[in-house]
Amino acid sequence: MIDRRRIGHRDQVVLVTGESMVDVRVLRGIDIRLHPRRGLDIGAAWFRGVPLAWIAPAGEGGRTAADWREAWGGGLVTTCGLDNVGAPSEGIGLHGTFTFLPARDVETERSDAAAVVRAFVDEPRGLRVERTVSTAVDTGRVEIHDRVVNQAETPLEAPQLYHANLGWPLWDSGATVASDAHEVRPRDDDAARHDWRRAPEPSDEPERVWEHVGASRASVTNERLGLQVTVESDMPRLWQWIDPKPGVYALALEPANCSVLGRAHDRAEGRLPFVGRGEERTTRIVITAVEVA
After folding, report:
1. What average pLDDT does range 47-75 have in this prediction?
2. What percent of the chain has pLDDT over 70?
3. By Cβ atoms counted within 10 A, which residue in 124, 181, 213, 234 is the most buried?
4. What is the pLDDT of residue 57?
């Protein structure tokens, strides 16, 4: 039972809404729903009552399906990898398997400043991910910090991409995208024909993907809504995905350490990320939301 005297207090209440979800709510910050059955990825999210995340047709918890897209739940952050990112490659499907792995030993911690959730995710090849997710009080800020440790006897491929999915009402007509890239490259002709800076009109045209070369952050701003959301990270690459189809209509800003063309492509280029035997790697992504005039 919740002590009603705490309602409105600067502290926060962490509610377990079932074995498969953890709701984290903070005062004047970003409320998030975490999914232990999806590697502690973030599902639905709200900033001061405004929904931020795009939710896939499968529902934010996802579902059992052979096709990754059909199984994918969307949500504020989907982790892609750690065996493959992007196009199916070397016998591994689209975007790999991480978001379908269970998190264990889920722990919650709360203070006057933030609510923090921690868990472990064990990847079958031998990579262990120690994940920490925090959301701040009085500030629209969510952070994911991952420590990836190779417990196997050999080096392991470890491409990783954070698929930060933004939807209506933030991603709507009039919304704009900006980044600190020194160049923006279309993945293919489908992207080259379009403007990455503006939300498109809904259409049945194919998805569009661009790389923001050299970027560490990207933002989407909806002046009519009075809201801006920024995604930043310590990852070396950043991608942008738009699907304009009615019933989908989504934007994703995607920090990564790899391409979205599959691990065989990255291997051939000499750019496939590995974690050596006994080694560890840390990655961090921060999502902030602010009101704009």
Report:
1. 89
2. 94
3. 181
4. 86
Q: Give the Å distances, CA to CA, from 242 to 5, 150, 191, 286.
A: 44, 33, 9, 20
Residue 28 CA to residue 56 CA, distance in Å, equals 26
- Number of H helices and E strands in the chain, helices first, is 3, 21
Task: Tell me the two tokens of residue 116.
Answer: 């923090």
CA–CA gap between residue 118 and residue 102 (Å, rounded): 13
217 within 8 A of 232, measured Cβ to Cβ? yes
Question: Tokens in use for 132?
Answer: 């920490």
Q: What is the pLDDT of residues 75-122, one digit of tens each?
A: 999 999 999 999 999 999 999 999 999 999 999 998 889 999 999 999
Q: What are phi and psi of 192, to 5 degrees?
A: -60, -25
Coil, helix or strand at residue 268? helix
**pLDDT tens digits, one per residue of 222-246:** 999 999 999 999 999 999 999 999 9
The candidate with the shortest Cα–Cα distance to 96, out of 284, 277, 276, 273, is 273
Mean pLDDT of 3-18: 40
Q: Which residue has the tokens 């990825």?
A: 41
Burial profile 266-288: b = 16 or more Cβ within 10 angstroms, e = fewer: beeeeebbebeeeeebebebbbb
Cβ neighbours, 10 Å, residue 3: 8
- Helices in 163-269 by DSSP H: which ranges? 189-192, 263-269
Please name each of the domains of the chain with its CATH number.
4-170+249-291 (2.70.98.10)
User: Which residue blocks in 28-161 are alpha helix, DSSP H?
Assistant: 68-71
C-beta neighbour count of 293 within 10 angstroms: 4
Q: Cα(first)–Cα(last) distance of the chain, in Å?
A: 39
